Each structure stands twice: as C-alpha cells, then as structure tokens.
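Objective 1.3, modelling of assemblies. Example input:
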Amino acid sequence: MTARRRWISLLTALALGPCLVAGSLEAGSPDGPGAPAWQAADKTPAEESVAAPRPPKERMEVSVLVAWTWLSILVLFWLVRLRAREADRVYRLGLRGPTAKPPKGAGH
Amino acid sequence: MKTLRPWFEERLGLGAVIGFLEKKEVPQHRHTIFYYTGSSILFFLGIQIVTGVLLALYYRPTLAEANASVARIVTELPLGWLLRSVHSWSSTFMIAIVFIHLLGVAFTKAYRRPREATWVTGVLLLAVSLAFGFTGYLLPWDELSLAATKVGTNLPRPIPVVGAWLTGIMRAGEDVTGDTLSRFFIFHVSVLPLALLAIVGVHLFLVQRHGMSVPLEEERKGVQGPVLPFWPNFAFREAGVWLILLGLLVTVAVFAAPGLGPQADLMAAAPEGIKPEWYFLFLFQTLKLFPARILGLNGEMVAVLIMMAGMGLFTLLPFFDDRPAGRKGKIITGLMGAGLAYAVGMSIWSLL
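Predicted structure (tokens):
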C-alpha cells in the first residue's frame, strides 16, 4: 500500500468512525429526534380482503382457465420452435442471410 | 392478402423495416440470454398499457370513491380481479426484468463507449418504472398504501433547500390528501407513460444506432463470434420467451391475486407492518438502520444524500468506468457486486 493510499484510508476512517459512533449514541438517547413515521406504528392493519374468487366452483373454473392457457401456450411454443428451427436451417444453408457486413469498431 | 400487402407497402414502406431487421444481427455467446430481457420489458409494458387502460375505465381517483371503485372492479366486474392482478404482477415482473437487464449490461460492461447514452436512458427508464410503482401503490387508497406513501413522500424533506418543496410537489400540499391521490393518478396514467414512451423511443433508437453490444470478455478474444439474424431467427425465439412469460404471469396472477385493504383514514394512526414494494425494501431498511443524528446532522438527511450520490454515480457509471478492461474496471465491477449484495441482503433483512 502506497503512502497516499494509507493516508486516504486513515482520513476515511477518521471521518466515518466518529460519525457512526456519535450517531449511534445519539440515536439511543431519549433526547434524540422523534422516531420517523415507519417506526411510529401503533395500530394493527385491518385484514385485507382476498381478491380472487372463493367459491369452490369458481376456483375450479379459474384452474381450468389456467390449464387451457398453458395448453395453448405449449402448442404455440411448439409452433414457434418449428418456425425458428426452419429459419435457422435456411440461414445455415445460406439461402437467406444478412447482406451487410457486420459493424466494426469499439464495442462491436 | 396479395393485394393488401402492396397497398400497405406503398403507404407505409414496411419493407424497409423488415430489410433493416433482416440485416440486424444478434451475437451468440454465453450471455445471449440477456438479449431477451429488453424485449421482455416491452412485452410487459404492453400488458401494463392494455390492463391499465381497462382498469382506468372503472377506477375513480377521488377520496370517497377510489377504494370502493377498486373493490367494485375486483368483486363485480367479470374477471376484474384477474385484470387487476395481471396489472399488478406484470408491473412486478417488468421492474424485476428491468433490474436484470440493467445488471446484465453493467456486469458485461455493455455500457462502454460508444453506448454511454444508451446506459443513461436505461437508468432513466428504471427510474420512471419505479415512479410508476410508487404512484400506482397509492391508487387503491387503503391503509397500507396511504401509510407507505406518507413515508415515501416524506423522504425528500430532509434534503437541504429543495426538500420541503419536493415533498409539497409530490403531495400537492403539506400532507397526503385527496389532492395527492389525484396528482398520483394523473402522473400514473399520463405524465409517466408519456415520459416512458419518449425515453423508450430514444433508448431503442440508440440500440439500433450502435447495434447489439458483445460482452467485454468476448470482444477481447479478438475474433468475430457467431451471429443470428434478428428477423426471423431471433424474433421467433423472443416470441417463445414471451409465451412462457405470459404463462407465468397468468399463473401467478390467478393464484396470488393482490388483496385490498380497508379504505384509508386520513386521521388514523399509521398501521403496523408498513412496507413498500419489494424494489424499495433495501432503501427502507437502510433508512431504518441509520442513526437519528450523525455529528449533529440529521441522520435521515445524510442517508438520503448518500443514496442520491449512489444513484448519481450509478447513472454516470460509463463515464467513471472509462477503462473497463483495466484494473479500474475490475475495481468498479467489485464495487457493483458489493452494492448488489448489499441491496439483496438489506431487502431480505427487511422481510425478516
């Protein structure tokens, strides 16, 4: 460690150390500033109402909706995957590809 | 279809756009997954806009009706609860992916020259997204949202000179009232969307202008790695990612729909367990741990100023990290890692 860095470390410790010690002591004293709003809680919140449907029939309908959603997504995903593979194959064969040269320079 | 295509082509010139997208290349390497995060953010933004417009048709931003109108949306409208849940969860997903996107850019040093402006607009987009979350949190006007907004809008107050003025601007007065609700609503549905779309426009332009960045470690290899055309090869892959994200979103929205608390009472004391959204937890925990006074100064003021300095440094990161491959770059990466560990640790601590 160079002398300059030692000085910077020492000055930082001297500046921050008393701040933390003095702040902690003062925060603990009864004469300190009033507690911020998030520490001044004195009332338990009332219970939140549940937004989703509760009756078993409606819950079942919602589960069926999710199942159909996933089924549709899996079918679409399979189709998209087929198209992506086909596009890759066409690109590999050189039947269609970028005509411009790739950009050059920093970061490219 | 055959007659429609030339009609549109003559008027809109979409062929040039397709041509550009075909020429656009996506580098392939072990960090390619981060390229999917940008479009995923746009996907969730689209969902936010659609669900937000539908919710706004029934929401009433007044003191007397806000909570009741949300209750009406989730109990009386067909699938209204799902609409609200999708809106709420897609904002969470979007902000999470914005964080991942930004961290990916930061740790792969993709912000290096000539992409400094792209980084700055990206950080601005994160700030606007967080502002969306903050303003949206108050809109149900229940006990917790009121208390959290009181805490949040009080944060700038200790800042010297402009603090009290900023708090007054956010609250539309001295305290959080019905005027604050109207102001937050206007910001949430008009000011912030306009700002977001403008910044997204600049950000996307810059991304197209400079092309997709490759990570520093790939660039240092000195050889051109494999690439994939954006259209249609990469676009199909992105569509697959969107489908999976949509499935996850619907599943979470159905099985973990957000509840609605009782209507906020302006005269009531703060309830227990005030907590902001997850993305503000580390700031919240830091403020809780800061001593009330530091060397005679207001501890809250010192904490807020340190946070602002941290955010400023993060925004200007590319200008500090001007030699990302050197020792300085490694030190900055280490500091970013430490900052990330701190934010995650503080958030977990806050939840315990």
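The CA atoms of residues 9 and 15 of chain A lie 10 Å apart.
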